[in-house]
Amino acid sequence: MFSVLSSPRRGAVRLAAATVVSGLVVAGALAGAGVAAADEAPQQHGGASATLGGLKTFGKAVIHDNGRDQPVSAGLFEMSVDNGGTLQTYCIDIHNPTQKDAKYQETPWSGTSLNGNADAGKIHWILQNSYPQVNDLAALAQKAGADSLTEQDAAAGTQVAIWRYSDGADVDAVNPQAEKLADYLQKSAQNLAEPKASLTLEPSAVAGHPGEKLGPVTVRSNADQVTVVPPADAAASGVKIVDADGKPVTTAANGSELFFDIPKDAADGSAALTVQASTTVPVGRAFASETRSQTQILAGSSESTVSATATANWAKTGAIPALSAEKNCAKGGVDITASNTGDEAFTFELMGTTHTIAAGKTETVTIPLKEDQAYDFTITGPNGFEKRFKGVLDCETQGSGGGGSATPSSAPSPASAGGTSAGTGGGDLAETGSSSATPMIAGAAVLLVLIGGGVVFFLRRKKSPAGE
Predict the structure, then answer these.
(1) What is the pLDDT of residue 145?
(2) What are the start-end ranges of the E strands in 66-212?
(3) Of 451, 458, 455, whose CA–CA distance to 16 is shortest?
(4) Contact 260, 312 (CB under 8 A)
(5) pTM score
(6) How many CB atoms lie within 10 A of CB 305?
């Protein structure tokens, strides 16, 4: 199944589109249930997954746009990491509402609006050289030429400086001391390289024949050690996770090569391995949501649980596909990488175009999408093979071509979160720019739910003479 939803503006309509997507995802799951439940594949190969809590430490800022002064809260968000840990983040998409309890995934810069941003490295420098990485506020104030800085001032000044580079925004901190910090950070920033992922497996999908070791799958992590979790049905299937010498492994480290050891008499099938570690996520890593919620960038991490998954597919004869996907903001779409280790061609169709991967070949197909399109598609293959990919193409800020005049927001929208008036522990949502958009969001959501069924397309593997 493939579905796309397009929104001409960011902000209110972006949020509404996410409501439609959730309904289509359910429909897709039911449609594919006749053969086998499709593997649901994220666009990232691993890392930290987290849930947005809210704006926790913040001050006030003013955005100057088209002759209007728009007040907005500016500061640090907090996220709860799945299976343990806490993250602190700033936002890098000022005109997109942030949804409380939205799910986020650690994401390469190439899959976010930081792609192609010549100042992305300066944002990384700001994160490394300001609050909360620098928690000596007296020393930070002295560098900035400020009389003093509270945590709220430091968070607001840091966020303002980031917005100037992430969104090209004309924005000032309301507090004069916070504004001095923002100016200092903006003027002092230097380009730093993108930090490496906390944990990934490369590649995230492999394929081959029974009796072979499928791989290698290489571990990339900043953790000293990762735990290797074998396939759920390993005892029954006989599939083992081994090293290059064929020895079973339960732990690994950065650079370790893992293999799926498939018994020679194994029936055609598939399996997945997971690696997990406890580590601090590198400052500067981006976090993107599969719903319409502001892209975030990491400012601080506790010891957190991170994980990555890789899959293997095997068969005795015929096409043997391995599929993975990743957002490609440079090309404005999603890259589907398909390899075929079988002895027959693997043919599939996407958006009306047929793609054929010859035996023994690997190709990457870019599926073009419009900004803000939500997608949900399943590719099927022989022996009940299914692979599902879903997400939202969110590659631009409003200032870089998003269009429209969405109301700025750096706090959870009032449609999905409450708040307090304190400077820490939650935002006073009535004071943020997002509040005025609520009626429009609700109306657009209802409209899109009514018309959403008209934009669903089905994709299935083109049958070969060998059949399925």
Answers:
(1) 98
(2) 68-81, 86-91, 103-107, 171-173, 199-202, 205-208
(3) 451
(4) yes
(5) 0.76
(6) 18
